[in-house]
């Protein structure tokens, strides 16, 4: 046992290195670190399974704060355990400040805890210069953890707000894909460009942030008004209506808008892996006709949609992952006006 204990510094330093690398990967380089990705996926899968079983979307709405807290706890507990193993590997490395008696295991845990939290209470101390230096390194790692935790939380809060802002804008512009197209054509001064080039900057910013922070794809909101899982597929279906249902050449900027939407929904499917559903039923053209908007024939429309079947599968996957129904995205044949 003494021999085994003396080697604990090895896994301890390895664990500290993994945590620091993961922390820097998530907060600076972008993407998911191996450690945080594992934790995020397990937490999300648990919440999603519970939400699906209970039919309660509020459970899924808790994914965002739960993922954030789980990441912060993982980094903090990882540093705490790693440095505890390092200091515990050498008997007598930590002693009482007054008694000079070797610290027990739980006293070492306590010592590491207040060291990485930068409290520095002083009722325990190290006995030799190398251990004092390691104490400084441990305190520095704790400071880095605290600093980068703030760096992690603030952009996440901003990105979540931007998701809600876009969802609110789209849902208020029209409750479904057909309403978005009708509203753009009849009620907006910029016409169809309000759904195309008017959203380029917002979509590009959102796509960039989701590509930098994959865990954003696992965020959900409990109300339809603020849910990007409804608003983005509705926009995607509206863009397909513009491309496939309206006569004439596609408006300028439509390809870029569809590319940005496609990137977001594919990223969502990659980070929220569920079986890809079949393409949804074709949207009804009746609401456009009722609004006095000319369209191509049903045959031309159906043929064009068939070319984008995979894209529409990803749109539907995003809707169903958020526990919504496709009927909230677009009216299909046989459905009445919204």
UniProtKB/TrEMBL annotation:
Q: Which InterPro entries match?
A: K_chnl_dom
Determine the domain of life of the protein's source: Bacteria
Record has Transmembrane helix as a keyword: yes
Where do the Potassium channel domain residues begin and end? 84-154
Q: Does the keyword Transmembrane apply?
A: yes
Q: Where are the transmembrane segments?
A: 59-83, 103-122, 134-157
What is the recorded name of this protein?
Potassium channel domain-containing protein
Q: Which residues are the signal sequence here?
A: none
Task: Record the organism.
Answer: Deinococcus radiodurans (strain ATCC 13939 / DSM 20539 / JCM 16871 / CCUG 27074 / LMG 4051 / NBRC 15346 / NCIMB 9279 / VKM B-1422 / R1)
Assigned keywords, A-Z: Membrane, Transmembrane, Transmembrane helix
One Pfam family recorded for the sequence: Ion_trans_2
Do you know which SUPFAM superfamilies this protein is assigned to? Voltage-gated potassium channels
Q: Could you tell me which Gene3D superfamilies the record lists for this protein?
A: 1.10.287.70
């Amino acid at each position: 046992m003494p021999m085994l204990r003396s080697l604990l510094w090895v896994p301890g330093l390895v664990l500290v290195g993994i945590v620091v690398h993961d922390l820097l990967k998530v907060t600076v380089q972008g993407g998911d670190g191996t450690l945080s990705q594992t934790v995020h996926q397990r937490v999300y899968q648990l919440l999603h399974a519970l939400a699906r079983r209970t039919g309660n979307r509020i459970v899924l709405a808790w994914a965002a704060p739960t993922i954030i807290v789980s990441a912060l706890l993982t980094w903090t507990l990882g540093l705490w355990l790693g440095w505890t193993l390092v200091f515990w590997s050498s008997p007598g490395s930590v002693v009482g400040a007054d008694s000079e008696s070797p610290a027990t295991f739980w006293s070492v845990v306590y010592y590491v805890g207040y060291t990485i939290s930068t409290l520095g209470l002083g009722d325990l101390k190290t006995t030799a210069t190398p251990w004092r230096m390691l104490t400084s390194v441990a305190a520095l790692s704790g400071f880095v953890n605290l600093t980068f935790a703030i760096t992690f939380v603030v952009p996440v809060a901003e990105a979540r707000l931007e998701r809600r802002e876009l969802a609110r804008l789209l849902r208020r512009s029209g409750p479904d894909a057909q309403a978005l197209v009708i509203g753009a054509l009849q009620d907006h001064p910029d016409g169809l460009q309000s759904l195309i080039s008017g959203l380029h900057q917002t979509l590009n910013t959102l796509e960039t942030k989701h590509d930098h922070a994959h865990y954003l794809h696992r965020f959900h909101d409990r109300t339809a008004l603020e849910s990007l899982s409804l608003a983005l597929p509705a926009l995607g279906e509206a863009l397909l209506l513009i491309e496939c249902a309206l006569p004439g050449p596609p408006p300028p900027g439509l390809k870029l808008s569809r590319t940005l939407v496609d990137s977001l929904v594919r990223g969502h499917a990659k980070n929220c892996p569920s079986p890809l559903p079949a393409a949804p039923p074709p949207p009804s053209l009746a609401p456009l006709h009722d609004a006095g908007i000319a369209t191509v024939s049903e045959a031309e429309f159906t043929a064009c949609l068939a070319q984008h079947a995979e894209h529409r599968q990803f749109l539907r996957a995003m809707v169903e992952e958020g526990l919504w129904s496709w009927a909230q995205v677009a009216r299909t044949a046989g459905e009445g006006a919204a």
